[in-house]
Amino acid sequence: MQTSPEIDVADALQKVLGGQTLAALTHIPQQQLEAVYAQACYFVDREDFDSALDGLLYLVMHDPQDFRFQFGYALCLHQLGSVTEAARHYGLAYMLDASDAGCAYRLGECHESLGDAEAAAEAFRTAISLCSLPDAAPGLRVLAETGLDRLNG
Predict the structure, then answer these.
(1) Average pLDDT over the chain, rounded to an integer
(2) Residue 80: which domain range?
(3) Could you give the maximum distance between any two Cα atoms of the chain, in Å?
(4) Are 72 and 54 within 8 A, CB to CB?
(5) Per-residue pLDDT tens for 73-117?
(6) In this model, does residue 150 exceed pLDDT 60?
(7) What pLDDT digit, counting tens, does each position of 7-35 carry?
(8) Are residues 82 and 103 in the same domain?
(9) Nearest to 52 by CA among 64, 36, 63, 65
(10) Residue pair 63/69 in contact by the 8 Å Cβ criterion
(11) SS (HEC) of 89-103
């Protein structure tokens, strides 16, 4: 019978607190993470958020510092009705890339759903501002403006 290698918990915790990911600690190659992400994207593109969720959770657990993983996980949670959890992960994603207008917009949607009009308005205004960046999705500005109008209704 094969036994698992001894783990120095204090050393592992120090590495994680120092910014090392679980994927790095457990020697999961980046290409494996990318394969899981590709499969999750396949499901998301087909709006099968339930099927994408487990893969994205795996990615968030193993590399929480990747914006794509946080945003994808948040998107699935959001679409499946777990708005509070989605807002947390959109917030984490936004901390990783504060230039993403789509993330700011989705965060605004969550805050609006949760009844926090002030936070929603701030997120929608941020999304509108970020839409001036070259990578902003076309049409996102109109969606954010519409969200802001709903709040000011």
Answers:
(1) 87
(2) 17-86
(3) 67
(4) no
(5) 999 999 999 999 999 999 999 999 999 999 999 999 999 999 999
(6) yes
(7) 565 555 555 555 555 555 556 678 998 99
(8) no
(9) 36
(10) yes
(11) HHHHHHHHCCCCHHH
| Helix, coil or strand: residue 9 | helix
Structural domains in the chain (count): 2
| pLDDT attached to residue 33 | 86
Distances (CA, A) of 50 to 80, 102, 127: 7, 21, 27
Q: Tell me, what amino acid is at 75?
A: L
Residue 142's identity, in one-letter code, is: V
pTM across the whole model: 0.83
Q: Which residue has the tokens 């207008």?
A: 101
Complete DSSP assignment for 74-90: HHHHHHTT-HHHHHHHH
CA distance 70 to 48: 17
For residue 51, give the CATH number of its domain. Answer: 1.25.40.10
Which residue in 135, 59, 119, 58 sits closest to 83, CA to CA?
Answer: 119
